[in-house]
Amino acid sequence: MAKPKKQPRPKAVTPKGFRDYFGQEVTQRTEMLRTIADVYHRYGFDALESSAVETVEALGKFLPDVDRPNEGVFAWQEFDEGGNGDWMALRYDLTAPLARVYAQHRNDLPTPYRRYAMGPVWRNEKPGPGRYRQFYQCDADTVGTASMAADAEICAMLSDTLETVGIPRGDYLVRVNNRKVLNGVLEAMGLGTDAAARDDVLRTIDKFDKVGEQGVRELLTKGRLDASGAFIEGVGLSDDQAEPVIAFLTSKADDTAGTLANLRSAVGDSKIGAEGISELEQIGELLAAGGYGADRIQIDPSVVRGLGYYTGPVYEAELTFEIFDEKGRKRQFGSVSGGGRYDDLVKRFTGQEVPATGISIGVDRLLAALREKGRIKSHDTGPVVVTVMDRDRMADYQAMVAELRNAGIRAEVYLGNPKNFGNQLKYADKRNSPVAVIEGGDEKDRGVVQIKDLILGAKIAESATLEEWKERPSQFEVPRGDLVAKVREILDSQD
Amino acid sequence: MAKPKKQPRPKAVTPKGFRDYFGQEVTQRTEMLRTIADVYHRYGFDALESSAVETVEALGKFLPDVDRPNEGVFAWQEFDEGGNGDWMALRYDLTAPLARVYAQHRNDLPTPYRRYAMGPVWRNEKPGPGRYRQFYQCDADTVGTASMAADAEICAMLSDTLETVGIPRGDYLVRVNNRKVLNGVLEAMGLGTDAAARDDVLRTIDKFDKVGEQGVRELLTKGRLDASGAFIEGVGLSDDQAEPVIAFLTSKADDTAGTLANLRSAVGDSKIGAEGISELEQIGELLAAGGYGADRIQIDPSVVRGLGYYTGPVYEAELTFEIFDEKGRKRQFGSVSGGGRYDDLVKRFTGQEVPATGISIGVDRLLAALREKGRIKSHDTGPVVVTVMDRDRMADYQAMVAELRNAGIRAEVYLGNPKNFGNQLKYADKRNSPVAVIEGGDEKDRGVVQIKDLILGAKIAESATLEEWKERPSQFEVPRGDLVAKVREILDSQD
């Protein structure tokens, strides 16, 4: 690196809302992404990695989050003598770039185009606890077909993916709803054309998860007092007008047939509503034929998240087991994936409607869930550490680690100041090393090495009273030639 | 996605200097990164993924490239009511972020800290042919030790890595030099303290690869006419003064001992020079002891790339086989990795010197090399395509792909408009599908399916005259129950 200029020392901090990931945090995510990619690939999806940077124009100056248009992206202007450089921005999701890529390369891409993509996205939002401005998404989308078979396939693939990464059946549920049914309801309410009222109703429906049936009823009509006692203005509908929305939100029955029947009455004779119900029916049939029962995937009109910007079916995968939140309260883990059909996205570029549907998996949340359930190792195993008793014989120690590595064993020689041997063992401890190797001049002369089982050693230290431990030695002297064999024996005994 | 606002249609293009990667371009890179990570991990290096965004302050407003300080990064100011937001930038390499991470977390990290990192970096530079503004790096560094054993280990690991990803011994060479030896040479020239003159000499030495010994001699003294006939001003040294530089650059002998002897005479009685030579000697001994001979790693003072900003040993890995460049001229493939010791980087933050050394592998160039040599598949195999003869029986077709996928076979059902069967086969062709499955009403009634070997079919089409092909059928009718078995049989026959 170039020498630093004379200037006050920079602060060694990540920018607000960003963080670093260490060791296992990185490798476990990489492993999960690979597992998910395998499933996507088996389903016929092709990999795509678009650039992290897009023109603001192509990205569209908006986020999926309808409440914050023109916000939420990290953008800058390309340098240009005249100051007329293009504006560029970091992608805020993997869907907008897909639309750009498909519009740009559509003549070379197959139609339909099944693609998966995984990588970081960036949101210029106020960071909060556990909310970072850079996080991973793992998407699969099918572009260029309006067939409900594409939507059913995505739901089935999502179910397979969750089970493949280690969420057992019964611990998750994929729920399916349809935006068109809601539009039908709005029609039935006589709000089919009143854009402002529709938006009010949509915003209210999005609160269903929080305030429940009675809360939504009040918010749609005369308003309500929220928990803090503040009065929330209502939308001002009559009770009769509000009823279809409630009927829609609460139409889930014991089985798909029952749910669909309830929806039919909720949309009355709305054409778009009927279309949406028939789409749900097709998806239900295809999934049933594929053996995906209600224990994995359900039609559930109470799924309202994201209804705002999808144009047809929407999906959400929730983990149904309970965890304890920051405040120690039991709650369901909740959503780890969402998606749906968005038929207008490519149209922005080409003018022609290109139907598309897909999902996005929140990889970091999924990893957190697996850690919660103890389904992935929560501690890193370090390398075997070959200690340095005699700094002039570094070549001897390097030869030992070379032997161990060639045998496929993770190993390293201590590269710090070897003067204080205690520091070397402290280092091995900090590295979670399973084994330390010691060869002093005396051992060298006698052609032996000392091998310390650090895991067993720690156990003995913990429970020194237990005779069973006392009887088992945690340090062994073996002929130099048996180094690799003995280390492997100890590693195997530790698993 | 939110509805686009009424505005002229956006152009569907990547920003200047950026590109998208499709299918195999992505999966082969992912695979290579995984292979490299395995080697790094076996050597005891831990994964680190720092955020892509850093404060400009932490990053330092400079690139490794000393010619363009204060340039080359994509930066923007954090929004802030008062307009006083922090400046943030995309990382331009993985080394500056490592320095920041180590300074920030040094109390929690082991010392020495061996870490590897892989991911995209961004350079705000004029894009050129094959030069993109986003590209992958794959680094390994050891922070917190001045021991030459760390440098030797990095060189050995680089050699192992190249062979593990598929570059055979003999097709690459890791070359090692030392910045301190050059400093010794400058001292011997009496330029030890004259910063300006030193920089002139450094810049000239960096041209050695291009202009050779005589060219450097002229540039150090009276100047020279370049290829275009333009006169390049010389540094203005006397011939005597220039000699040590030439001696340094040309001091490579048949073996390490000879090279070191030449270097000793080049640095005269310079203390720093002697120190650098002793460092090279230690590295040479450790590598020899590890069995890394001159066929893999060599001490080579003609390695000058990057000498400008490293503080000790520098390494470069070159692929030595020849390829044809854009203009069809034979040339060596050249460098795929470089690195060295930089002891001042963490000091920027902490004030204390923290010795560090590491390498960066240019993954995309390495992939290009493997493709050149035909060592990785250059074509993607698509999924088995189950065609749709009867759109009302989509469930039947979904059941077939489910069976194939459950057997681990990549498969998909055709999701486009099934009306024109020719389009379905065209699609399978565009997807490089190995096999197509066909089940019309007639087959359904008879309980059979048609299975087309598309690879064989293409061969037959190409060489229709060859009897051998004519005799082999490329389409088979099998009982529905034998679908998976027959498809696997065909796939196996295609490998």
Describe this protein with a few key phrases.
homodimer, 495 residues, alpha+beta, Rossmann fold, eight-stranded mixed sheet, 18 helices, 40% helix
Separation of the first and last Cα atoms of chain A: 43 Å
Helix fraction of chain A, binned, reads 25-40%
CATH architecture of the domain at 384-493 in chain A: 3-Layer(aba) Sandwich
Return the CATH class of the domain at 384-493 in chain A. Answer: Alpha Beta
- The beta-strand count of chain A equals 19
Overall mean confidence score, pLDDT of chain A: 89
- Going by CATH, what is the homologous superfamily of the domain at 384-493 in chain A? Anticodon-binding domain
Largest interface, chains and sizes: A-B, 117 and 117 residues
Overall 3D form of chain A? elongated
**Main beta sheet of chain A:** 8 strands, mixed
CATH fold-level assignment of the domain at 384-493 in chain A? Rossmann fold
How is the largest sheet of chain A built, in terms of strand order?
2-6-7-14-13-12-8-11
Give the oligomer, counting copies of the same chain as homo and different chains as hetero: homodimer
Domain Aminoacyl-transfer RNA synthetases class-II family profile (chains A, B): 1-383
Organism (chains A, B): Ruegeria arenilitoris
Subcellular location (chains A, B): Cytoplasm
Binding site for L-histidine (chains A, B): 93-95, 123, 137, 141, 305, 309-310
